[in-house]
Specification:
Blueprint: H1 26-70, H2 81-90, H3 97-104, H4 108-121, E1 124-129, E2 132-140, H5 142-164, H6 168-176, H7 178-189, E3 206-207, E4 211-212
Helix pairs in contact: 1-5, 3-4
């Protein structure tokens, strides 16, 4: 019986591979590339989430620290921030309740409740709407204007004192971040981008008695 040929280990067809082991297929190379891309995107998303978490934490603590630090000297600082924001909006011009709600992105009934408290405090009043006598506009009173000015000055003094306590490098870093923070504030104030709506797929015409049109 003739003997079978001994396989050559260096042959590309050899089961043992060796120096002649075939290169990975195009499909395997593509799969490896997809994995690299997925893991890279995942890392970018994780980094973005961590940055947002850190910034949110710092902004929240900064806001809380600022209000609590001047509350002892200015008892009215306990005024809810939602009411302060309404006063700031009304400082530009009188507005209807619906317009206030749209600008603050609040429900109209929520704004009505806040306005009632500001009316009781004498910080706003109701004025006839020149364009529609059936409705009224909410306007800032002199007392409300003074409240806002005191609020602004108190915060400016407190922040100035805190900045003075920082090192020159830290002060420069804080001031250098202001343009970026201003752009971030505008981005947050902008309405969310609307996704384009897709038109429904056209449906085949049907005859009421004879089925689909041909």
């Amino acid at each position: 019986m003739p003997s079978l040929p001994t396989p050559d280990p260096t042959s590309p067809n050899s089961p043992e591979g060796g120096a002649g082991e075939p290169a990975p297929s195009a499909l395997e190379a593509r799969f490896d590339g997809v994995l690299d891309e997925v893991y890279g995107v995942t890392d970018e998303v994780a980094l973005a989430v961590e940055r947002a978490r850190l910034l949110t934490d710092v902004v929240t603590r900064l806001r809380r620290a600022l209000r609590s630090s001047i509350r002892t000297d200015y008892p009215w600082e306990s005024l809810p921030m939602a009411q302060v924001e309404l006063l700031q909006t009304l400082a530009a011009a009188p507005l209807r309740v619906g317009e206030l709600a749209a600008r603050q992105r609040l429900a109209p009934n929520t704004v009505s409740g806040l306005i009632s408290k500001l009316l009781d405090a004498g910080f706003v009043d109701r004025q006839p709407d020149p364009g529609d006598r059936r409705t009224a506009r909410i306007a800032l009173t002199e007392a409300g204007q003074r409240q806002l000015e005191d609020w602004q000055r108190a915060h400016e003094r407190r922040i100035a004192d805190a900045l003075a306590s920082l090192s020159p490098d830290d002060r420069e870093a804080v001031m250098g971040a202001l343009p970026g923070l201003e752009r971030l504030a505008k981005a947050l104030a902008a309405p969310p981008a609307q996704q384009p709506t897709q038109s429904p797929a056209p449906q085949p015409a049907h005859d009421d008695h004879h089925g689909p049109a041909r």
